[in-house]
């Protein structure tokens, strides 16, 4: 047909036919390119499968099931991998990873021992931890109640972590090895064991089938990831991480989206394409509209995916926060129980100090004094004097330890208005025998009364500080005590002429069982710890520094004045 002689209708018909054929050729070429690319990128990947329901396991027909199997299937469909599942036990699967007979092992713990041997992914679809179950009415409410009890387990990381825990070295457990987690539940249900260690992932699915209770204790929270053989291309691990990070999370479950496009266009369809002009025109218009619709759909899809990804990221962050908070709550409950037990042990120890130890020491003191009055032989008398000196130190240690333990258990105390001048003068009067023994004088020249809201235990502060000044001062020296009026507080300074305290030891003088180094002077180191605790309960401060302008040490106590 001569183009110049075409009518307008024939020209339009030709344009429509050309557009329709161009669109069809474009769609066919796109399909062939996608098909070829998919065929060329197919890669065989061998995956180990072991019983770890619900994360990974295998049905009787050989199909791999579980969260990690579904994730891997989704990634394989996207990346063009052909998966071959190799079933076995966990031990067999690790051996196959070692010799390279499998490429990937799903749902393994991200722990240093595994990380050193294999290539691990970093994205964790699930975090698992061990939970201790017991039957109702067992009387087991904390880890301390498990001492001497029967504990059922399988050989997994949670049992190994529990058994190797530092606090379990002095605990007597009777372990029962079970063949599966469901067997542990059955043993508990029949009361054939007192407790059992079950992963959270398994327990959340099957615990409702049994009448059991959980102990508030979390064992080794662990991210479950994919492990790759060292013979496997490391890029596969990176690809798995990238795909997992893009998966959509809905209500805590990984959701997968796959698109399967099937097309059936053959060469015969093209070669036999002959239709009326109206049909060609309709196809052309329809194709154009379809192309516009596809473009709009892709644009809208991209926008939806961007917003969905942002929402997914927020949801993942929220899930992580909830998961971490839940673990923290479980740990806090356990810490509270441990703290309660610790306080009970401290109270028991304090009672033993106050009653069971002080009484025998007091009896020894009485008998030694009696024997010393009757004994005339010098050597025996010297031995008795040594016994008396050491027994006095023992009584002082017991009394100080009991006093400090009592103070540590106090959160507050009652106060009344007392005169610090009278308290200090009374302490000095009680210490006159020690002062005369070393020919030491005390300079204390009060200018009036010093009223303060204090507890009677404040006397122990001044008694300890002045006694220390006497103990560490050379004979024939002077101890200076002064009280200064500073704003709304009284500052009491007690200065001696001793050898002083090295700067590196000053930060530790108030720590229990730590004291500045003193030659030929021994003690428990509890006196200054008692001083610090009493002053803290008074909301005051106590400091130590070198004496200004001369040799010696100054202790400064700051206490609030009486509020008018």
TrEMBL record:
EC number of this enzyme? 2.7.13.3
GO molecular function, a single term: phosphorelay sensor kinase activity
**So which domain of life are we looking at?**
Archaea
Can you tell me which residues the record assigns to a coiled coil?
301-345
At the top of the EC hierarchy, this enzyme's class is: transferase
What SMART domains is this protein classified in? HATPase_c (SM00387), PBPb (SM00062)
Task: List keywords of the entry alphabetically.
Answer: Coiled coil, Kinase, Membrane, Phosphoprotein, Transferase, Transmembrane, Transmembrane helix
Gene3D superfamilies given in the database record: 1.10.287.130, Histidine kinase-like ATPase, C-terminal domain, Periplasmic binding protein-like II
Q: Which residues cross the membrane?
A: 23-43
Pfam families documented for this protein = HATPase_c (PF02518), HisKA (PF00512), SBP_bac_3 (PF00497)
Tell me what reaction this enzyme catalyses.
Answer: ATP + protein L-histidine = ADP + protein N-phospho-L-histidine
Domain Histidine kinase, first and last residues per copy:
352-563
Q: Has the keyword Coiled coil been applied to this entry?
A: yes
Report the protein name in the record. histidine kinase
Species of origin reads Methanolobus tindarius DSM 2278
């Amino acid at each position: 047909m001569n183009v110049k002689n075409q009518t307008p209708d024939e020209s339009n018909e030709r344009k429509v036919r050309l557009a329709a054929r161009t669109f069809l050729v474009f769609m066919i070429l796109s399909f062939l390119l996608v098909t070829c690319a998919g065929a060329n990128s197919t890669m065989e990947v061998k995956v180990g499968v072991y019983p770890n329901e619900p994360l990974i396991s295998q049905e009787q027909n050989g199909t791999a099931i579980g969260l990690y199997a579904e994730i891997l299937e989704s990634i394989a469909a996207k990346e063009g991998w052909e998966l071959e599942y190799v079933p076995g036990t966990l031990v067999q699967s690790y051996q196959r990873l070692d010799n390279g007979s499998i490429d990937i092992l799903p749902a393994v713990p991200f722990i240093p021992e595994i990380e050193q041997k294999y290539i691990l992914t970093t994205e964790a679809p699930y975090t698992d931890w061990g939970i201790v179950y017991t039957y109702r009415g067992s009387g087991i409410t904390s880890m301390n109640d498990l001492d001497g009890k029967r504990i059922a387990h399988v050989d997994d990381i949670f049992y190994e972590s529990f058994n190797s825990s530092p606090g379990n070295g002095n605990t007597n457990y009777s372990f029962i090895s079970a063949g599966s987690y469901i067997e542990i539940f059955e043993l508990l249900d029949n009361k054939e064991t007192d407790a059992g260690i079950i992963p959270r992932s398994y327990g959340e699915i099957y615990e409702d089938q049994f009448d059991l209770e959980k102990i508030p204790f979390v064992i080794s929270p662990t991210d479950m990831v994919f492990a790759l053989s060292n013979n496997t291309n490391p890029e596969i691990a990176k690809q798995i991480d990238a795909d997992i990070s893009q998966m959509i999370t809905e209500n805590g479950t990984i959701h997968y989206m796959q698109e399967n496009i099937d097309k059936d266009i053959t060469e015969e369809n093209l070669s036999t394409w002959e239709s009326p002009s109206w049909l060609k025109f309709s196809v052309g218009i329809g194709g154009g509209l379809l192309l516009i619709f596809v473009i709009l759909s892709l644009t809208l899809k991209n926008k939806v995916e961007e917003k969905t990804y942002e929402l997914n990221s927020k949801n993942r962050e929220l899930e992580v926060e909830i998961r971490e908070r839940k673990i923290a709550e479980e740990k806090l409950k356990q810490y509270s129980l441990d703290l309660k037990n610790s306080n009970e042990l401290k109270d028991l120890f304090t009672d033993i100090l106050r009653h069971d130890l002080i009484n025998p020491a007091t009896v020894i003191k009485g008998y030694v004094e009696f024997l010393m009055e009757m004994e005339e032989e010098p050597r025996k008398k010297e031995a008795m004097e040594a016994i008396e000196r050491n027994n006095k130190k023992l009584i002082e240690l017991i009394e100080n330890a009991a006093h400090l333990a009592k103070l540590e258990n106090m959160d507050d105390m009652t106060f009344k208005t007392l005169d610090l001048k009278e308290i200090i003068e009374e302490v000095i009067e009680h210490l006159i025998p020690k002062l005369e023994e070393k020919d030491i004088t005390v300079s204390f020249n009060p200018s009036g009364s010093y009223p303060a809201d204090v507890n009677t235990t404040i006397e122990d502060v001044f008694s300890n500080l002045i006694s220390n000044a006497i103990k560490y001062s050379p004979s024939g020296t002077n101890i200076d005590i002064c009280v200064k009026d500073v704003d709304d507080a009284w500052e009491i300074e007690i200065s001696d002429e001793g050898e002083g305290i090295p700067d590196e030891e000053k930060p530790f003088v108030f720590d229990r069982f730590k004291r500045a180094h003193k030659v030929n002077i021994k003690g428990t180191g509890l006196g200054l710890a008692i001083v610090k605790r009493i002053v803290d309960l008074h909301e005051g401060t106590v400091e130590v520094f070198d004496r200004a302008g001369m040799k010696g040490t100054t202790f400064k106590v700051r206490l609030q004045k009486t509020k008018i």
